[in-house]
Write a structure and sequence with these properties.
Elements lengths: L7 E3 L5 E3 L1 H22 L24 H15 L1 E12 L6 H6 L6 E9 L5 E10 L5 E14 L7 E12 L9 E11 L3 E8 L11 E10 L1
Antiparallel strand pairs: 1-2, 3-4, 3-10, 4-5, 5-6, 6-7, 7-8, 8-9, 9-10
């Protein structure tokens, strides 16, 4: 509540004038003006207060895409992996899928060779890049290049013996398939031996080869060296 001021002043006739109403009005106007200025200059008490800004965080780095990861992975294998020499030697054709006459014509001595690189990764598994050329069942040249991943299980550090199993994704070219046009294939792969010398095997099922009976087991060896 505003204070009430009582001020009296003598006029020129010696009469006493009461100036209280005038002074109080001026006081009230000044108080209102100061209050309005304060309200305009500061946020209203009834206004919704915005929360303080959170600490600014640096934007997260963009995650590399599939092809970037693949390219990096290939570079790691080629730069950190050990050189491999592959020797192919035997292709077994399922006797229930071929007649005796067909088996007599087919070539099972799949002589060939190849080169590649294998990296023993942080999980103790083998990742390989390879290129192999061999003599196929029709005695034509067959070429395949790809990537293989094998989960490796050791049988003891003293023996050094280990076995592996996994998959390989390859591009294969055969004269008798698709007119010699390279085609992709995903095949199982397994191995047994030591880290530096392995006997390996892959199975080519009927569904993997168009216009061919398939069901072929291919045996080959891998020799790893620095």
């Amino acid at each position: 509540m505003l204070p009430v001021l009582k001020i009296k002043e003598m006029d020129n006739k010696g009469m006493c004038m009461d100036l209280t109403p005038i002074v109080n009005s001026l006081y009230n106007m000044a108080s209102f003006s100061l209050g309005a200025a304060a309200l305009l200059g500061t946020p209203s008490a009834f206004a919704q207060q915005e929360p303080p800004p959170e600490s600014i965080q640096a934007p997260e780095a963009a995650q590399p895409g599939f092809w970037t990861k693949t390219r990096t992975h290939v570079v790691d294998i080629t730069e950190q992996g050990r050189w491999d020499l592959y020797l192919s030697g035997y292709a077994y054709h399922n006797r229930n899928s071929y007649s005796d006459k067909s088996l007599h014509k087919l070539n099972e001595k799949a002589w060939g060779a190849g080169i590649g690189k294998t990296l023993r990764n942080a999980n103790g598994d083998d990742e390989s890049l390879y290129f192999i050329g061999l003599r196929d069942s029709r005695r034509h040249a067959q070429f395949m290049a790809g990537y293989a991943y094998q989960w490796v299980h050791g049988f003891g550090a003293d023996s050094g013996l280990e076995a592996g199993a996994g998959l390989t994704a390859a591009i294969i070219r055969r004269q008798g398939v698709l007119g010699g046009v390279p085609f992709p294939a995903i095949l199982p792969v397994a191995s047994i031996g030591t880290q530096s010398t392995k006997l390996m095997v892959t199975f080519i099922p009927h569904a993997a080869i168009r216009n061919n009976k398939g069901n072929v087991v291919l045996l080959f060896a891998r020799f790893e060296f620095k």
